[in-house]
């Protein structure tokens, strides 16, 4: 089947009659069945074909062969949904044995918005268990295989989403990002991945990992598609008290206008010295610096900045995220949902029952629960959770100061390209350090994205990391569009 | 050194959980309140739940604004400081009726702090005391479980119902004071309309912290917590038992173990709930799903203005307007339904019937859910007022009404309850009594004044209790003087 | 900061209702110990007077109007929420007998 480069191209193809939603959906399922990436945990074939059929009929009938882009901006677009997001009546596992047979009773607000805008859900994407991981080697349903290099990890935790988009198994996908879980796999797999400002997109229906950090975001083939998906999903939700009332702008318009008249003049790009340390792979450094240079040549001003508390990012993040995670995972007790071992009811005590059920968690999840429980436990709260919260505020302050001088901050997404399967899985701390560049933007709640800007000698993708001020997605998309154009 | 002669004082602190009468739950849109006339037992288990209050993955809390307003009202009515910024925290513990594995509550900086209640106690409510309120905070109720042999069943209908927890200072020193505090607090929350006040359905639940110490000792003794006692009387009895149990324990040289206990009302005993003592580590931390609750400038003022007349204010007004004693007036405002009933009745009978009506209502007649109407009481009060019947006759009418119903005037007629105030009927009877008791007459006239009661009693008996008591006493006294 | 040893890991695992095998405990002592050692670097930071950042948003809490939206009944006429439940009896969640 054709490899469409953007949602716009698909809509053009619908309008020209080249394909239709049903045909396209069938084509994707063909690819999926033929693929060995293990990108999906659950396929929604019947459901998706039904959605596609209705849309195709509508296209031919009431829409008279003209895709209603205004009313239904995602008309007939087949998407993959990370399995950490609930869909009513659909198996939702969060990559865990604990939810192996869980059929969600309600649909996540963000997913509902996409389907209300005309999208088709192909299936639920493979991921690191409960979004905890950077390589998609922690799934209870097997590793996700890198789209082009099978000996490499696709990145995580949204590995399935990234791989599927790159391998043409869906038009775009939803991932979630807590410390880099969209941006890292996007960089490793060569797709666009975006994390909005914290509070842009409702978390209702997003199985919680770290509540003050989690965000849903798009993983797409182009910056324009990322803007479109973000726009559709963003906005306040009465079911999510942490979702902002900040107005949503027409970001796809920003991208469209920037692409038509690409002008980097006046754009002030901040390059943080703490992000260009030793330990970054030489080719990654070259590609990123090259992308920055192109922007400079196109008229942007490159300004060196400092984010002094960067070195504390991983420590700060892991304390906060794991404390919140240990709390969020307390609800998995086998009482109202979840996988119960056959002999669970024979337990002689509640504690025994709980332990039997919670044995469904994988090793990394258990490690994080223990760490988080410890850091919140009596006597340690001030030293860990509170301290980390204070450093977090200082890190946010670093960004706010820098953004007085620059419009957008750029860096590598990760010190390396996709590493080998098994390379870091035995060393948790090393694995945590792969997120070193993506974490600070998460802690500060800033919108950020990864745009592919090159490949290394092995052909592995290298992403450029862009960060904008809170609620300044317009600036982010503008800069990303420029970077994307210049990279081709 | 503690010995049998040591005088102990009991130190009591009360934690009351008040269910707020909102339509939906505190963090979810499930139904929180029973439909009128229904009881908790009528509801299908787990019908009043959503993914939020049953802790499903991906669910998030959304705070009910009415619950906030009700909590502030409770704080204003008890003189608390309303914190303009307050925070929600997660309190972690694993239990099947706690769906998220944590309860959302308030830990540091609750919505209300530092209030107080004035209580009246003693035989006629003549003793007063100020009891401090440390804090009032918002939290969610837990579900319920029922136990069988080999398994338990969990029902989450109650999980997520809004609660305010009112925590008192350990200022109470007797079961009586504790009872007075509870009744006062109950009267306030029902008068405010923030709580439906149905004790059977668990709308108002009390945990009592009890400790004892030698009188005069500045340090607190180890306290135990008595949980889930469902009536004010039982709270008083439980505290009484517990204080005595602790005293005996200390005298026997034992240490008081800090533990949770339950009260058995049949045996009138408290017993330990936990088989092993385990301090709970709740791992409190601010709930990241719920940013700080900020109360807008004008909201508190507006709520203050909108507060209804509170029991103490009503009591003072009844004392002023109708000349009731403090004790009587206090009884009339114990519940909002009773005070409404009383005032309606007085309206029907006229201001001058107020004291009599209060008297009749104070006799402990159960108004709630009874056949009694305000008109019954105003009618009776009028009959007493014009001396047609005596107070005791009126009480007879009330008991007949409650058993069989009827009309007041007809019952008085039918039972022949009209009191005899006719002098020409009474005088001969009294003469007869005096004549048949010459010995006692002699003793009375020699100075044994106490015998007046004997003669009055005999005369009353001779009239089958129908004599107008005041008039009878006056006549007997006159005749005895000779 | 605390010493990470077997006793501590066992105690914390109990708090979190996790059953750990001996080799798991050994592994966690090692990896968690390493991670916490790295985290010790936070002690270098001067946080005097800094308000901790616990929330992702700056907005105050938004309130919800007090309105009931029932979740409803499922396909078989029982409360819909029970459809996911592992063990249901008389519309209630069944668990081992809760002692104490």
What does this structure look like?
With 488 residues, chain A is an alpha/beta fold. Chain A has helices at 7-16, 21-34, 45-60, 109-116, 159-166, 183-189, 223-233, 251-260, 282-297, 313-328, 350-358, 363-376, 382-402, 428-432, 439-444, 473-487, and strands at residues 40-43, 78-82, 120-125, 172-177, 192-195, 215-220, 268-272, 301-305, 408-412, 448-455, 461-467. Helix content of chain A is 38%, strand content 12%. In chain A, α5 packs parallel to α6 and α10 packs across α12 (363-376). Chain A is globular, with a radius of gyration of 22 Å. In chain A, 65% of the residues are buried. Chain B is of the alpha+beta class and 482 residues long. In chain B, α6 packs across α8 (354-362) and α8 (354-362) packs across α9. Chain C has helices at 6-15, 22-39; strands at residues 88-89, 92-96. Chain C is an alpha+beta fold and 100 residues long. Chain C has 2 helices and 2 strands. Chain C has a domain at 6-44: Histone, subunit A, CATH 1.10.20. In chain C, β1 (88-89) and β2 (92-96) form a beta hairpin. Chains A and C meet through α10, α11, α12, α13 and α14 of A and α1, α2 and β2 of C.
Helices, strands, pairings?
The complex is a heterotrimer of chains A (488), B (482) and C (100).
Chain A: H1 7-16, H2 21-34, E1 40-43, H3 45-60, E2 78-82, H4 109-116, E3 120-125, H5 159-166, E4 172-177, H6 183-189, E5 192-195, E6 215-220, H7 223-233, H8 251-260, E7 268-272, H9 282-297, E8 301-305, H10 313-328, H11 350-358, H12 363-376, H13 382-402, E9 408-412, H14 428-432, H15 439-444, E10 448-455, E11 461-467, H16 473-487
Parallel strand pairs in A: 2-3, 2-4, 7-8, 7-9
Antiparallel strand pairs in A: 1-3, 4-6, 5-6, 5-10, 9-11, 10-11
Helix pairs in contact in A: 2-3, 5-6, 7-8, 8-16, 9-16, 10-12, 10-13
Chain B: E1 8-19, H1 65-77, E2 81-82, E3 85-86, E4 89-92, E5 102-105, E6 112-121, E7 127-140, E8 144-147, E9 151-155, E10 162-168, H2 175-192, E11 204-214, E12 224-229, H3 232-251, E13 260-264, E14 269-272, E15 285-286, E16 293-294, H4 297-306, H5 311-322, H6 326-332, H7 336-349, H8 354-362, H9 374-385, H10 391-404, H11 408-415, H12 423-436, H13 438-445, H14 451-462, H15 469-481
Chain C: H1 6-15, H2 22-39, E1 88-89, E2 92-96
């Amino acid at each position: 089947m054709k490899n469409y480069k953007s949602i716009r191209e698909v809509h053009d193809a619908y309008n020209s009659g080249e394909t239709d939603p049903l045909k396209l959906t069938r084509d994707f399922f063909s690819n999926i069945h033929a693929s060995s990436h293990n990108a999906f945990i659950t396929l929604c074939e019947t459901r998706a074909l039904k959605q596609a059929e209705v849309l195709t009929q509508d296209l031919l009938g009431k829409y008279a062969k003209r895709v209603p882009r205004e009313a239904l901006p995602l008309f007939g677009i087949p998407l993959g949904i990370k399995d950490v997001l609930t869909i009513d009546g659909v198996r939702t596992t969060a990559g865990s044995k604990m939810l192996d047979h869980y059929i969600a009773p309600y649909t996540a607000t963000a997913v509902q918005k996409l389907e209300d805008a005309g999208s088709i859900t192909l299936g639920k994407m493979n991921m690191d268990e409960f979004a905890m991981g950077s390589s998609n080697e922690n799934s209870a349903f097997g590793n996700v295989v890198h789209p082009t290099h099978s000996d490499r990890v696709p990145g995580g935790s949204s590995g399935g989403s990234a791989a599927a988009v790159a391998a043409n198994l869906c038009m775009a996908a939803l991932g979630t990002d807590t410390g880099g879980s969209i941006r890292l796999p996007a960089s490793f797999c060569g797709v666009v991945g975006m994390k909005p400002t914290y509070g842009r997109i409702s978390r209702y229906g997003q199985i919680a990992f770290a509540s003050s950090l989690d965000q849903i975001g798009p993983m797409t083939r182009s910056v324009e598609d990322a803007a479109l998906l973000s726009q559709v999903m963003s906005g306040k939700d009465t079911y999510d008290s942490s979702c902002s009332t900040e107005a949503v702008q027409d970001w796809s318009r920003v991208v469209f206008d920037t692409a038509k008249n690409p002008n980097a003049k006046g754009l002030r790009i901040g390059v943080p010295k703490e992000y260009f340390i030793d330990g970054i792979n030489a080719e990654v450094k070259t590609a990123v610096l090259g992308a920055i240079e192109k922007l400079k040549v196109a008229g942007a001003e490159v300004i060196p900045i400092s984010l002094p508390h960067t070195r504390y990012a991983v420590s700060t993040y892991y304390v906060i995220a794991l404390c919140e995670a240990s709390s969020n995972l307390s609800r998995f007790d086998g009482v109202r949902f979840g996988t119960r071992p056959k002999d669970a009811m024979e337990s002689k005590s509640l504690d025994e029952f709980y332990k039997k059920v919670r044995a469904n968690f994988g090793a990394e999840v258990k490690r994080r629960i223990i760490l988080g429980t410890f850091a919140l436990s009596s006597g340690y709260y001030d030293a860990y959770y509170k301290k980390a919260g204070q450093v977090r505020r200082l890190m946010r302050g670093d960004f706010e100061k820098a953004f007085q001088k620059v419009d957008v901050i750029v860096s590598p997404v990760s010190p390396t390209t996709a590493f080998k399967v098994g390379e870091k899985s035995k060393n948790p701390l090393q694995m945590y350090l792969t997120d070193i560049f993506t974490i600070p933007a998460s802690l500060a709640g800033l919108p950020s994205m990864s745009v592919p800007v090159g490949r290394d000698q092995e052909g592995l993708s290298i992403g450029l990391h862009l960060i904008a001020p809170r609620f300044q997605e317009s600036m982010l998309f503008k800069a990303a569009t420029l970077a994307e154009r210049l990279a081709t | 050194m503690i010995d049998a002669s040591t005088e102990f004082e009991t130190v009591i602190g009360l934690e009351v959980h008040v269910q707020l009468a909102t339509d939906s739950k505190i963090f979810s849109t499930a139904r929180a309140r029973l439909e009128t006339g229904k009881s908790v037992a009528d509801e299908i288990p787990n019908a009043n739940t959503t993914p939020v209050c049953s802790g499903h993955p991906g669910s998030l809390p959304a705070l009910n604004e009415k619950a906030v307003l009700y909590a502030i009202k409770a704080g204003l009515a008890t003189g608390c400081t309303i914190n303009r910024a307050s925070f929600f925290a997660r309190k972690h513990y694993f239990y099947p009726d706690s769906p998220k594995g944590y309860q959302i509550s308030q830990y540091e900086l609750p919505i209300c702090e530092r209030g107080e209640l004035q209580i009246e106690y003693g035989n006629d409510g003549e003793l007063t005391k100020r009891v401090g309120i440390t804090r009032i905070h918002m939290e969610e109720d837990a579900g319920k479980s029922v136990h069988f042999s080999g398994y338990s069943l969990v029902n989450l209908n109650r999980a997520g119902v809004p609660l305010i927890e009112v925590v008192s200072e350990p200022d109470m020193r007797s079961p009586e004071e504790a009872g007075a505090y509870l009744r006062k607090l109950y009267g306030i929350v029902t008068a405010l309309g923030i709580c439906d006040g149905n004790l059977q359905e668990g709308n108002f639940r009390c945990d009592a912290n009890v400790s004892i110490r030698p009188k005069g000792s500045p340090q607190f003794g180890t306290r135990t917590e008595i949980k889930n006692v469902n009536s004010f009387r039982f709270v008083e009895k439980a505290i009484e038992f517990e204080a005595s149990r602790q005293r005996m324990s200390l005298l026997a040289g034992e240490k008081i173990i800090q533990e949770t206990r339950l009260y058995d009302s049949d045996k009138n005993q408290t017993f330990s709930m936990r088989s092993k003592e385990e301090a709970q580590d709740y791992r409190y931390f601010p709930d990241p799903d719920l940013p700080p609750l900020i109360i807008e400038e004008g909201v508190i003022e507006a709520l203050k203005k909108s507060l209804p007349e509170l029991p103490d204010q009503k009591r003072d007004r009844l004392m002023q307007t109708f000349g009731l004693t403090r004790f009587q007036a206090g009884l009339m405002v114990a519940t909002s339904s009773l005070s409404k009933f009383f005032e309606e009745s007085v309206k029907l009978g006229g201001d001058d019937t107020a004291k009599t009506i209060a008297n009749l209502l104070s006799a402990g007649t159960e108004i709630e859910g009874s056949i009694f109407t305000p008109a019954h009481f105003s009618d009776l009060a009028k009959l007493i007022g014009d001396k047609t019947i005596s107070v005791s006759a009126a009480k007879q009418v009330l008991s007949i009404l409650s058993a069989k119903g009827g009309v007041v005037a007809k019952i008085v007629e039918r039972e022949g309850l009209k009191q005899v105030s006719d002098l020409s009927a009474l005088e001969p009877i009294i003469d007869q009594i005096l004549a048949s008791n010459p010995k006692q007459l002699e003793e009375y006239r020699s100075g044994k004044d106490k015998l007046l009661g004997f003669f009055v009693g005999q005369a009353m008996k001779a009239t089958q209790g129908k004599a107008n008591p005041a008039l009878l006493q006056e006549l007997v006294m006159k005749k005895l003087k000779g | 900061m605390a010493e990470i040893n077997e006793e501590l890991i066992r105690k914390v695992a109990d708090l979190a209702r996790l059953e750990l095998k001996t080799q798991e405990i050994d592994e966690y002592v090692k990896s968690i110990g390493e991670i916490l050692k790295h985290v010790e670097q936070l002690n270098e930071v001067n946080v005097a007077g800094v308000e901790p950042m616990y929330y992702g948003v700056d907005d105050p809490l938004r309130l919800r109007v007090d309105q009931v939206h029932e979740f409803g009944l499922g396909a078989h006429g029982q409360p819909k929420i029970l459809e996911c439940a592992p063990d249901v009896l008389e519309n209630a969640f069944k668990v081992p007998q809760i002692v104490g």
